[in-house]
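Risk mitigation, structural track. In case the binding assays with magnesium ion fail to produce interpretable data, a predicted complex structure has been prepared as a fallback.
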Amino acid sequence: MKIFKTDKDGLTEAAEEIRAGHLVAFATETVYGLGADATNDRAVASIYEAKGRPSFNPLIVHVPSLAKAKEYVTFNDTAERLAATFWPGALTLVLPRVENCPVSRLASAGLETLAIRVPGHKLALEFLKECGRPLAAPSANPSGGISPTKAQHVIDGLEGKIAGVLDGGPCPVGVESTVVGFTENDQPVLLRPGGITREALEASVGLVLSHDADGTTPSPGMLLSHYAPNASVRLNATAKEPGEAYLAFGREYDTIADVNLSINGDLTEATALLFSALHFLDKMNFKRIAVGPIPEIGLGVAINDRLRRAAAPKHEKETIGK
Ligand code: TXA
Ligand code: MG
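Fallback model:
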């Protein structure tokens, strides 16, 4: 696959591929996205094909501004406030499609809603403007695999299946965006923990977000087994067993660590390193990756969510919250 330059010529060339209906992976601040022209049904369909992803899983559509987002979805007051506070950034809003929305129905997987975000990465924003189209983009990895936080991860997973990749260096956040949907009464619901913490969202809207755990709000595509390395994963490990790699957090178990997500116990640093560490340990062919305890606060919620999915048996295709 082609590695596009990040100068004007490279961006133009990559955008031409998009407009021709081809797939281009690009850096965002969260993880690398596998981009397709969201208004082109065939292009969107080829995302599912390249990833080998179950086609009932709806995709996030990326736009360069709030004004552009309003061409595709209808905002309620809370959504407007969240967008004003966190965009560009690691927040995805699930909102009703406008009438005659030009975005492919396939990106919504048949729902009347669309997931949309303005990414907080300079290169991604330039690319979106250059394309002149909304880009549907899930994480650029084969379905069920570990999300890519470097261009090399994309090449390892999708070589031969896509036109190319725009290499923007390592992703600074390192975990996918937080997904927020709304009830019929416009109450915000946390559908997926991610790069922006629940605490930050709640402070912005001045209310407590309900959680999807009661299963009342459908969050299709939250497959239990996801982000999974080839090795099996053991959580809350306080010792290393024979044949295991040990992924530590903080100082406590550093002496047995093969990789430490953050020796200082910094959750932001740990998030940025998480998927790289899993890719790295997976390549070393350990039979199992043992992961030390990580606090369930702030970004730790998103880290633990991804790790629980990585640890789930691969045959489990249950939907979380159902
Ligand atoms: O950070 C990110 O969000 C990355 C980068 C590339 O932007 N993208 C990403 O996309 O993670 P994807 O397709 O892997 O995740 C989409 C998530 C899934 O959890 C899906 O269930 C949810 O968004 N989603 C999408 N559309 C939805 C809808 N209409 N209703 C409810 N959930 C939706
Ligand atoms: Mg993904």
